[in-house]
Write a structure and sequence with these properties.
Blueprint lengths: L5 E2 L6 E11 L2 E12 L2 E9 L6 H17 L6 H14 L3 H15 L2 H15 L20 H12 L3 H18 L30 H11 L6 H13 L3 H4 L7 E2 L2 E4 L10 E4 L2 H4 L21 H10 L10 H14 L4 H8 L6 H5 L6 H20 L16
Antiparallel strand pairs: 1-2, 2-3, 3-4, 5-6, 6-7
Length: about 400
C-alpha cells in the first residue's frame, strides 16, 4: 500500500510521504512534492527526497519562486520548464577549454602580445589539471560546474613546484572569469577566483654584476659563439642599461643622430624615452640588418627566454648565474658608484621620478646629463675590459664579427 501524503499549514502547497523502509538518520526518508495553480490549471510536481537535501522549507521556497515567476512572467513557472531551461543553458554552456579559446580570441584583439602569451600559458596549465581521480581534465568540465575549491586545489598544487607559475595561473584564471561574467556572455555569475588566496610572491632573484664581472662579460662577448645579433644585443644592453624588450625591437626610424627615442607604445612607462648612443653602443647597431637586432635564424626580435637559454648554455661566461635584466641593474648601480645622482640615473634608465614636483613641475629632459652618464659608463666599462688605464686610448667595439 502506498504511503499516505501528509501536509502542514505552516507550508501550504507542500506535501510529503514517507518511504516504507529506507531511513534518513533515525527517521524514514521523506519524498516532497508541491501543488499550485497556473492559469487556472492545477500542477503537481515532485521535488526529491529528504536524503537528497530537500526539506519542507526548501520545497516551500521553490513553490514561492514558481508562483512569482507565473505572476510576473519572468522565468520558468514550473519545474518542468525550469529543468528544460537548465538543460538548454547547460547545452549552451561552454567547457573550460571552449571558454579559454573564446577568451584568447578576445585577448588577441584587446591585449598586448606579451599579455596574450602570459594568459595562454597560464590557462594551458589549468586545462590539463585533474581535480580528482576519474573526474577528467578541467578543460573538459562545463565552466558552470567548476567550483572555487577546484581552482584553489589547482593553484596550491602548482605552487608546490613554482610560486611564480602559480601566480601566473591565478592571474590568468581571474581574467578569464572577469570576462566570462560580462554581458552578453554571462557564463558565470561571479568571479570565483577572487576568493582564492593569492600565492606569495617568490623572493626576487636579483643580482648586480660588479664592474669586474661586467668587464669580464664584455670581453667574453668578443669571442662568444652564437647569433651575432644576440651578442650585439647583450653588449648594447650592457652599455645602455635599456630593457631587452625595447632594444630588441629597435627600428632605424627611431634613431636621430646620437639619440634613440623609444616610442611610448613600446616603453614600459607608456611615455617616450630618449637613450644616448655612445660610440660604443652605436657600433652594435648593424646598419645591414633591419631590424638591427633581429635573429639571423628567424628574422624576429629576441625574447628574454632565448637570451637566457643562450647565457646558460655558455655557463654565464664563467660568472655566477644572472639574467639579462640584471645587466640593466648593473648599469644603474655602476652609475651610482661613479657618483651620478639618483635623478640622473633615473632619467638615464627611464624611471619616472616620484613626487608632486617631479610629476607636475620638472620638464627638464636631462639630455646632457644622460649623455655624460652613459659616456662615462662606457669608458669605465671598456677600460676594465681591456685593462687600459687611460680611457682615451679605448678603441670602440666593432658592430659585427667576422
Amino acid at each position: 500500500m502506498a504511503a499516505k501524503w501528509e501536509k502542514t499549514n505552516k507550508y501550504p502547497g507542500v506535501r510529503w510521504r514517507n518511504h516504507s523502509t529506507r531511513k534518513h538518520g533515525t527517521k524514514f526518508d521523506r519524498y516532497f512534492a508541491i501543488r499550485y495553480q497556473v492559469g487556472g490549471k492545477r500542477i503537481e510536481e515532485g521535488l526529491g527526497w529528504w536524503s537528497e537535501g530537500w526539506t519542507e522549507k526548501k520545497a516551500y521556497d521553490t513553490l514561492s519562486e514558481l508562483k512569482e515567476a507565473a505572476k510576473t512572467g519572468r522565468g520558468a513557472a514550473s519545474l518542468k520548464d525550469r529543468r528544460k531551461q537548465k538543460a538548454m543553458e547547460d547545452e549552451a554552456m561552454p567547457t573550460f577549454s571552449e571558454a579559454v579559446e573564446k577568451f584568447m580570441i578576445h585577448c588577441e584583439r584587446t591585449r598586448r602580445a606579451k599579455t596574450v602569451r602570459y594568459y595562454r600559458d597560464g590557462l594551458a596549465k589549468a586545462e590539463v589539471f585533474q581535480p580528482g581521480k576519474g573526474t577528467g581534465k578541467l578543460g573538459e568540465w562545463k565552466l558552470s560546474e567548476i567550483h572555487r575549491r577546484n581552482l584553489a586545489a589547482l593553484i596550491e598544487e602548482i605552487g608546490t613546484e613554482s610560486q611564480s607559475v602559480a601566480i601566473q595561473v591565478r592571474s590568468s584564471l581571474s581574467s578569464l572569469y572577469a570576462w566570462a561574467i560580462q554581458s552578453p556572455r554571462e557564463y558565470v555569475e561571479t568571479n570565483i577566483v577572487r576568493d582564492v588566496p593569492r600565492p606569495e610572491k617568490p623572493a626576487p632573484r636579483e643580482r648586480t654584476l660588479s664592474i669586474d664581472e661586467a668587464a669580464k662579460l664584455l670581453a667574453a662577448l668578443e669571442t662568444a659563439e652564437g647569433d651575432p645579433a644576440m651578442i650585439r644585443l647583450v653588449r648594447f644592453i650592457l652599455l645602455t642599461g635599456c630593457r631587452l624588450s625595447e632594444a630588441s625591437h629597435l627600428q632605424f626610424c627611431e634613431i636621430d643622430g646620437e639619440w634613440w627615442e623609444v616610442p611610448a607604445a613600446r616603453f614600459k612607462g607608456k611615455r617616450a624615452h630618449r637613450v644616448y648612443l655612445t660610440e660604443e653602443a652605436a657600433a652594435q647597431i648593424d646598419p645591414d640588418t633591419d631590424p638591427p637586432f633581429a635573429s639571423i635564424r628567424t628574422g624576429r626580435p629576441f625574447e628574454p627566454s632565448s637570451v637566457g637559454r643562450w647565457l646558460k648554455r655558455n655557463d654565464y661566461f664563467g660568472l655566477d648565474p644572472f639574467s639579462v635584466h640584471d645587466l640593466r641593474r648593473t648599469v644603474g648601480s655602476g652609475l651610482a658608484k661613479l657618483g651620478f645622482s639618483m635623478e640622473v640615473i633615473a632619467a638615464t634608465l627611464g624611471h619616472k621620478l616620484q613626487g608632486v614636483t617631479a610629476e607636475h613641475y620638472i620638464r627638464h629632459r636631462y639630455d646632457d646629463e644622460k649623455k655624460k652618464a652613459l659616456t662615462v659608463w662606457a669608458k669605465h666599462l671598456i677600460k676594465h675590459a681591456t685593462g687600459k688605464k687611460d680611457s682615451a686610448d679605448v678603441i670602440p667595439l666593432t658592430s659585427k664579427r667576422a
